[in-house]
Amino acid sequence: MVEQITYRRVYEESSPADGKRVLVDRVWPRGMRKEDAHLDEWLRYIAPSSDLRTWYAHEPSRFAEFRRRYLAELRDAGHRQAAEHLRDLAAHDRLTLLTATRDVDRSQAAVLAEWPAGKQ
């Protein structure tokens, strides 16, 4: 298993060291043209549910609970196919997870960077 997973903002410049670049947001980043994102994939169905995103509202004090709820969502049938695909990508390639979120260390990308290898 490769397990070289990083994450960062989609607005940052791409690098050959990124490996596969996968956007993990449910909605397209504001102001970003598709050709400027340099994505390999947009895996929108791995993103947290709208209800969970709304509840979290990127409040740092809620991150631990957001993480717990999001990991539970990833085990649900609705996320299963996207989750399996992400695990497969992580097993074969260096992977950079992209998000438009300003606080990337408290985002779904940060949770996902730990998750495929079972480091929850």
What would you say this structure looks like, in words?
The chain is built from 5 helices and 4 strands. With 120 residues, the protein is an alpha/beta fold. Helix 2 (50-56) packs antiparallel against helix 3. This is DUF488 family protein. InterPro entries: YeaO-like (IPR052552).
Strand and helix layout:
Layout (H helix, E strand, L loop, with lengths): L4 E5 L10 E4 L10 H4 L3 E2 L7 H7 L6 H13 L1 H16 L2 E5 L8 H7 L6
Parallel strand pairs: 1-4, 2-3, 2-4
Helix pairs in contact: 2-3
Low-confidence stretches: none
Q: What is the succession of H and E elements?
A: EEHEHHHEH
Strand content: 5-15%
- Strand arrangement within the widest β-sheet reads 1-4-2-3
Nearest-integer average pLDDT = 89
Number of separate domains: 1
Count of alpha and pi helical runs: 5
Number of strands: 4
The rounded Rg comes to: 13 Å
The biggest beta sheet reads:
4 strands, parallel
Q: What is the share of helical residues?
A: 25-40%
How would the global form be characterised?
globular
Structural class: alpha/beta
Gap from first CA to last CA: 17 Å
